[in-house]
């Protein structure tokens, strides 16, 4: 989806008022349709009744019903009560209810809330009508204009100015859209007394030609240090090559500069995929997921919010891949870093970031990660005394003030696990056998029991020390 924002400049104040009246009626129609949909009304009945009620044509009413339905479905998907949706914004509405806000500050808030509540209009494109019938872009000698249908055979015109400062490239894009007769949607919004238009065009992508048939390339984007780690695997999931792309430009600079470089880095990933002839596997992240506590406490969520726009970069990779006919596979990111650092970083002598990219690639092929036998043998070989000593060491680590908070939960899980082992003398453990832990919990426990005692203050970047334990099963050296 390509979206172009522009400011509308009306030829006279009367035309602007007619457009504002249309937006007010359409917004009221959409809110009314939302209430009726909650009561179980169907689209056909609503469409027939709303046209006369709000003096809107059939297309405007249909678009209002569509927007109302999407708002309703979105509320249900997010687990919110659809009956408590507040048009105009819940945050602004709550601020208006506060008694300590009055005078000019209150009036400014009220105007902002009313603009968001009443200053909207949405008009879908139509391929059969060569663009958009209700809100059509027209090219004239003195510029590019938006023709808005405000009633039966009644139109107002507004000059399209692409942003606060005139942007010729955006205006050229709008003219190209008009000349090509492709459908485009237009959304009008009222902000600070001005009307802005958002033109949206859906791209037509070529057929997918590069698939996972010959293997994939896994992508792991890291906030610290800023880099993209990638790992190439064949169709069996074997590591064939790997590398990283540093991204120092994303650590600072203006918003426009960082956006430019995100596109450049996305192009580099696509170039690698095209050269290798392999699909791309990325982590499926959703910032709407607030974590178990609902406070965005998850490690991935913090990484998204406190570093560069992680999701934006992944979105650009997906967009460019679609344009090039490259398959993009999204996978669950859970524990990819832990599995990578414990299993593949020491095995292939690679960084934990590259190892995480390798796990992501294998997950894209549907490969499962089994816990190495020597890790299980290591835990089985521990005596009760050694388990007690290890548990005390872990408890001591918990009391270490220099320890990062994100490790505490893992360490406490490890203590719980070690206590369960102590109660089973003569046990023979299998992965998860006789325990209440999930596979992912086991990896987390293993990290706490093996990695953190080696480096309690921070996670090391070199895991070669684990190679003898993982490959040869050697342990016992203090």
From TrEMBL:
Gene Ontology molecular function, alphabetical: DNA binding
Q: Which residues fall in a coiled-coil region? A: 384-424
Q: Extract the InterPro entries matched here.
A: Cas12f1-like_TNB, Transposase_put_N
Q: What keywords is this UniProt entry annotated with?
A: Coiled coil, DNA-binding
> Per its UniProt record, what NCBIfam families does this chain match?
IS200/IS605 family accessory protein TnpB-like domain, tspaseT_teng_N
Q: What is the protein named? A: Transposase
